[in-house]
Amino acid sequence: MIYHSQHKKYFAMRRLNLNHLHTFSLVIAHGSFSAAAERLHLTQPAVSLQIRQLEDQLNLKLIERVGKRLKPTSAGTTLLEHIARIEAVVEDALLELSSHASGVAGKVAIGTGATACIHLLPPRCPPRVAVCISPPLLEDEFVAIFASSQQPIAAEMTPEHLCELPLVVFEAGSSTRLLINEWFLQAGIRVKPVMELGSIEAIKEMVAAGLGYSIVPRMAVAAVHHRRGLQVLQLVPGLSRTLGIALRQDKPVSKALRQVLDALHNLNATPP
Predict the structure, then answer these.
(1) Looking at the DSSP assignment, which residues form a beta bridge with residue 64?
(2) Which of 24, 68, 242, 247 is the most buried (most CB within 10 A)?
(3) Are 272 and 120 in contact (CB under 8 A)?
(4) Ramachandran region of residue 216, left (φ > 0), alpha (ψ -120 to 50) or beta?
């Protein structure tokens, strides 16, 4: 019997009408059916019916008359506390959904390396797409970086120039590290780094402190504030990689994702 009673209350809560809850809160706020009806642009019988249906659903008395005003019962007071939270949650949900409909917000998961994530994506992500394949997007050129206080041995850096100098490099196994190793191997040189790090920003800090040189994507030092304390030199022969987008063929393209894709496809057309 207890089980049956709990079940009835559970299904009653599932069928609750949001309009009825709002009507109930207005009746209590204004103290009468007529005032609530005027506010809702409904007839007084329509408001009374909504309250009666709500009470029938919950099998509880929600309103009582005290003098000339309608007041909530103990159960009605409890319901009012929940209505405030329910309306806040619904409002938040509608705001988020409206932003999806207008295509200005949403979550787009992007798997990418740290360098592109820090230096390439943020300037181009739509402002409310929370921060973030196909034909190639761009050629990502690599450069040599030294501490700005260090005297360069040449205007352009070859593998032969660099092989005897202390190298601060990306950790083994990363795609960037493999590219750098291959660049030296093409010249018949196998390098032994003095330091291996997983963060592009940590590498730049070590180089700026004079602990060695590194080879990094140009985008990581393109902005003035990103190359503070560093000097940037060209590599000869040149070293670059092609950045592209990998997207599942059956992946639905939301408006938020479409904005991100359009921004990325325009990388070659606009400077960072």
Answers:
(1) 71
(2) 24
(3) yes
(4) beta
Cβ–Cβ < 8 Å for 144, 219: no
The radius of gyration of the chain's CA atoms, rounded to the nearest angstrom, is: 32
Residue 12 has pLDDT above 60, yes or no: no
Would you say domain 2-102 falls under CATH 1.10.10.10? yes
Q: Each residue of 17-72: pLDDT tens digit?
A: 889 999 999 999 999 999 999 999 999 999 999 999 999 989 999 999 888 899 99
Identical fold for domains 2-102 and 138-243, yes or no, is: no
- The 10 Å Cβ neighbour count of residue 114 is 16
Q: How far apart are CA 149 and CA 132, in angstroms?
A: 35
| C-alpha dist (Å) from residue 245 to 44, 111, 136 | 60, 10, 7
83 C-beta neighbours (distance < 10 Å), count: 18
CATH class of the domain comprising 138-243: alpha beta
Kind of pairing between the strands at 69-72 and 63-66: antiparallel
Residues in the chain: 272
212-232 pLDDT per residue, tens: 999 999 989 988 988 999 999
- Contact between 211 and 166 (Cβ < 8 Å): yes
Return phi, psi of residue 9, to 5°: -65, -40
Rounded to 5 degrees, φ, ψ at 135 are -60, 155
pTM, entire model: 0.50
